[in-house]
Write a structure and sequence with these properties.
heterotrimer; A: mainly alpha; MetI-like fold; C: MetI-like fold; 12 helices; globular
């Protein structure tokens, strides 16, 4: 009797501990982001207030200013958003095609120096953007693709291909060879067999690679700040700097743009989070 | 009704024509001028005037880049590296100008001597590198003066306490030594600070430079060899160290640059603040500042040797690779004209033309805005002591060497002498590598 | 006229090779060359002056460079290890949750969606000593005279940038390890329970070995991206004050862009590339070892 009671108490204590720990962890993860969202709705004088004001008032001023014209603190948000979308989506799509083709080559063919090729490919991904940005700028400037969507798309495709190869390689390997052999016997070409049989099976791996590629392009700054110049090609991370001037940082405005930047990533990740986890683990572990 | 409209149209036409004595209507029909301009609220008001120039000359201006100064500096350097310099007009700054060797034309060849003479001589000197006039200054001249909270000087109990402790009357400081005493006296960290200073990058080095000169020393000698580790230099740096150690400045001050300083003083929790002209309106605006109504402006304090002011100014330059330099120069002249400077300095920035200075000071004295008159008078006085940084491409690089050492001394990682000696040694190596001696 | 046809695998790999060569390899060759010149951005002609290994000798004999190098390794070691431990802890916590787990999982991914530059600004703001959230909280809960200089004090500044980095990247570990926990076969765990193993013993001898490959994947993914910390540190402290948070990348970008000494910066760049490559190779090696142990080689 006494024993079961203490046992139950202990269990309850553990449960409370678990809950508290989880709550703390989640707070640390969420608060910094929420703080940004909250500040995008607060007037500047309140953000800067000292002593701090804890009961927030609500204003849409930062959003109104951001969408307003030049001179009123306006920033060409729509253009940045459009640029970001075009560049991220196109580069993701192309990187997926190229990466899948590479991943398929690694998964399905035997050739000399395979591991060497593979690690070599990965190493190019490891080159820090900040070390690459200037040489890349000079090469791109000679070719004349600075400040174009094309230039940035090209750069991001190259950045995302190695990772895509890695993940899709793992997925294609899991699919038994017999599957496409059977399809070929049925009269499909290898190409048809790939799209009809192997691609559908590997879909969740492809999806997770795509999200990673998209988020990488969407959030990249070091290269974008060097390869873009005007509103014709500036992406949203570069646009954040519009809120810093020589003498000031407009926190409220920056938070407002940040919120716009996070929303698409949030929506996308929420929609496909299941694939993301499955894709990452199988692609990597079994590869 | 109709008549008056005709007259007003006529009048405005006359005004526009008068504005461009040297420009003929439609002179640059079909020409497109590409420009890279500094962005930010403070600077962009002027760009609204560009359309007037476009209408008058028939040319089109294409602003291909608009960024903060550091960003645009980086972009221009990248352009020089890649050879993509066929754009025409670039925003420039007196501290940055010497770095862009061979990029910009000597404006002496394009602008009449009479026009050049209308600018303040010191500003033209600071825009001239190796005899070449690399930019025409706009109405963005920067020298810093002392902003202070007036209420600190009206409290009699405080004044008595101060006198008892320091032995002289409490008044707005006129020397850096008094400034230090008072900053330490007023400080009540973390709720109230005596002062604050920019603590990194070029910002702290510029301020240190100013103090070295005020103490009777200099940053570089005539051979461009570093001499800031002299006694004067050590006294100057000691001032920063003392304020920091006494906690008279916020501990975070070493990570502050201008935005943080502005926000700090506007929060009403800093007694004495050396700052730029662009802030005057902001500090006294109840919308943006808690110190509004309580802000005094005085000329910057002097050191043990002299009164000085580290200064710089913005301007516009024309590239050598520009296809239509005449049109580009015409736009630069327009943006720096008397009318443009009057319009731009109405926003609170300081002009670089003598006539505009006079007009502004006279207008402020006659106007009913006492604060504006007070601040303008302080800046006019402060500008008299202004000096510009050495016009060598290596200036920026020396600041990157020096500022971490200044920080090391302020934080107590090194003694003042060690820090300055280490910095001087590294700057010496740089200068030798650059071929000065 | 029989042309030898390229093998199929090579054709499939060709697009990847071409893109990477164009975007990464050519610039790298260029910057490798320029690291042997006194190349200054503002003096393009300096690109043609060969100075041999001068730049390398200069940085290798420079105390500041080595300090930044050592600090970078320390930073990465601390960050990666803490991310791993915290990730493991969070994954175990979340794994026990029976209700609302999907929502929690989504929240967990929150930081992954933030651009590193945004993370930098965000924490610069939060750790501001005057108006920052952290100090405001400390002061509001009763320590009114405390204003910690988060971004200035030597130890606190390092802590702050580590915190930001860890905040951004722990999710990757947590998510991957969580996926590993889902995939653990039940039988060995139950057998262990029957045999009277303590929870710690079964964790140590069954769960952890099974999780190893997942941990190494996470490590490998992260090692490809370590230089992202540059964006954060550059915004938060710029390497300061007094070089207390100077990492290889901030030193390099200041030398290259602000001082315009690209030749020297590229020499540093090569050292940092080498570092990234070593990290990556190390974890790839570990990953294949762990896979082999579990018999997962395909």
């Amino acid at each position: 009797m006494d024993l079961t009671l203490s046992h139950r108490n202990r269990k309850r204590g553990l449960k409370a501990l678990h809950f508290t720990a989880l709550f703390l962890v989640m707070s640390v993860i969420c608060i910094p982001g929420l703080w940004i969202v909250l500040n995008s709705f607060r007037p500047t004088i309140e953000i800067m207030a000292k002593p701090p004001i804890w009961s927030p008032s609500f204003t849409l001023d930062h959003y109104r200013a951001m969408f307003g014209g030049a001179g009123e603190g306006g920033v060409p948000v729509f253009k940045y958003f459009r640029n970001s979308m075009i560049i991220s989506i196109t580069s993701t799509a192309i990187a997926m095609l190229i990466g899948m083709s590479g991943g398929y080559a690694f998964a399905r063919y035997r050739f000399k120096g395979k591991n060497g090729y593979f690690v070599g490919l990965m190493l190019f991904r490891a080159v820090p953007g900040v070390a690459l940005s200037l040489p890349l700028f000079i090469v791109f400037a000679r070719v004349g693709i600075i400040d174009t969507h094309f230039g940035l798309i090209l750069a991001y495709v190259a950045m995302n291909v190695p990772f895509t190869v890695w993940l899709t390689d793992g997925f294609f390997r899991q699919i038994p060879k017999e599957l496409h052999e059977a399809a070929e016997i049925d009269g499909c070409t290898r190409w048809q067999a790939f799209w009809r049989v192997e691609f559908p099976v590997a879909r969740s791996g492809v999806a997770s690679a795509a999200i990673f590629a998209f988020l990488t392009s969407w959030n990249e700054f070091a290269l974008a700040s060097q390869l873009t110049r005007s509103v014709n090609s500036k992406t949203m991370p570069v646009g954040l700097l519009d809120f810093t001037a020589e003498f000031t940082i407009n926190w409220g405005g920056m938070c407002a743009l940040a919120v716009l930047m996070i929303i698409p990533a949030l929506v996308l990740t929420f929609l496909v989070q299941k694939h993301l986890i499955a894709g990452l683990t199988f692609g990597g572990v079994k590869g | 009704m109709k008549k008056s409209r005709i007259i007003s149209t006529l009048l405005s036409t006359v005004a526009v024509v008068a504005m461009f004595e040297s420009v003929q209507a439609g002179e640059f029909d079909g020409v497109t001028i590409e420009a890279k301009l500094i962005g930010g609220d403070q600077y962009e008001g002027l760009y609204a005037r560009i359309s007037e120039w476009e209408t008058a000359t028939g040319a089109t201006v294409d602003i291909i880049s608009k960024k903060s100064h550091f960003e645009i500096d980086r972009e221009i350097k990248s352009d020089m590296a890649a050879g993509t310099t066929s754009w025409c007009i670039g925003s420039n700054h007196s501290s940055f100008a010497p770095q862009y060797e061979g990029l910009y034309v000597d404006l002496n060849d394009y602008v009449s001597g009479d026009t050049v003479a209308e600018f303040v001589g010191g500003n033209i000197n600071a825009s001239t590198v190796g005899g070449e006039l690399l930019m025409l200054p706009r109405a963005q001249f920067d020298v810093s003066v002392l902003y202070y909270l007036k209420s600190n000087y009206t409290d009699e109990a405080k004044a008595a306490e101060f006198k008892a402790e320091y032995g002289y009357d409490l008044a707005v400081p006129d020397t850096w030594a008094q400034f230090k005493d008072q900053a330490i006296f007023f400080a009540d960290p973390p709720n109230f600070y005596g002062s604050q200073y920019a603590g990194k990058d070029e910002a702290i080095v510029g301020r240190f430079y100013e103090m070295v000169v005020a103490e009777g020393g200099n940053y570089l000698d005539d051979n461009k060899s570093p001499i800031f580790n002299s006694d004067a230099g050590q006294r100057a740096l000691q001032w920063f160290v003392d304020l920091y150690e006494a906690k008279a400045v916020p501990a975070g001050t070493l990570s502050y640059v201008w935005d943080d300083l502005g926000a700090g003083f506007a929060s009403g929790t800093v007694a004495l603040n050396l700052d730029w002209p662009g802030w005057a309106g902001y500090f006294n605006d109840p919308e943006s500042s808690k110190a509004a109504g309580n802000v005094g402006v005085a000329v910057q304090p002097m050191g043990s040797a002299t009164r000085t002011g580290w200064s710089g100014h913005h301007g516009f330059s024309v590239t050598n690779d520009c296809d239509n330099k005449e049109a580009a120069v015409s736009l630069v002249e327009f943006l720096t004209s008397e009318e443009s400077q009057l319009a731009e300095s109405a926003g609170g920035s300081l002009p670089t033309r003598s006539a505009v200075w006079d007009a502004n000071v006279a207008a402020a004295a006659a106007g009913d805005d006492a604060f504006r008159a007070e601040s303008l008078a302080a800046f006019a006085e402060g500008a008299k002591f202004a000096f510009a940084v050495p016009p060598i491409p290596e200036w920026g690089e020396t600041t990157n060497i020096v500022f971490p050492e200044l920080q090391a001394a302020i934080l107590g990682d090194k003694t003042v002498k060690e820090a300055l000696d280490d910095a001087a040694e590294a700057v010496d190596e740089l200068m030798r590598e650059s071929g000065y001696y | 006229m029989t042309r030898r046809r390229l093998p199929e695998w090579f054709l499939l790999l060709l697009p990847a090779i071409i893109v990477i060569a164009a975007v990464v390899l050519i610039p790298l060759i260029f910057s490798f060359y320029s690291s042997f010149t006194p190349y200054k951005l503002t003096r393009p002609s300096t690109l043609w002056k060969w100075v041999g290994t001068y730049n390398y000798e200069k940085i290798l004999s420079d105390v500041k460079f080595w300090a930044a190098f050592g600090r970078t390794i320390l930073f990465l070691t601390i960050a990666l290890n803490l991310e791993l431990m915290l990730g493991l802890g969070i994954a175990l916590l979340v794994n026990k949750v029976t209700w609302g787990q999907r929502g929690i999982r989504t929240m967990l991914m929150f930081p992954m969606m933030f651009s590193p530059i945004l993370v930098g600004f965000q924490f610069k703001f939060i750790f501001n000593d005057n108006i920052g959230l952290v100090n405001n909280i400390i002061q509001s809960v009763g320590f009114a005279d405390v204003a910690l200089p988060w971004l200035v004090d030597g130890k606190l500044a390092m802590f702050s940038i580590l915190f930001a980095e860890i905040w951004m990247s722990t999710s990757v570990f947590a998510i991957l390890i969580l996926a590993g926990l889902f995939a653990i076969p039940r039988d060995p765990l139950e057998a262990a329970k029957v045999d009277g193993c303590t929870p710690w013993q079964s964790f140590r001898h069954i769960t952890l070995p099974f999780l190893m490959p997942f941990i190494f994947i996470a490590m490998t993914i992260r090692s490809l991206d370590v230089a992202r910390a540059y964006d954060i540190v550059q915004i938060m402290t710029g390497g300061g004050p007094a070089r207390r948070t100077e990492l290889l990348w901030t030193l390099m970008s200041r030398t290259g862009y602000v001082d315009a000494r690209m030749g020297l910066a590229n020499a540093m760049g090569y050292v940092s590339i080498l570092l990234s490559i070593l990290f990556t190779i190390y974890f790839f090696h570990k990953l294949s070892a762990a896979r082999a142990e579990l018999g997962m080689t395909g």
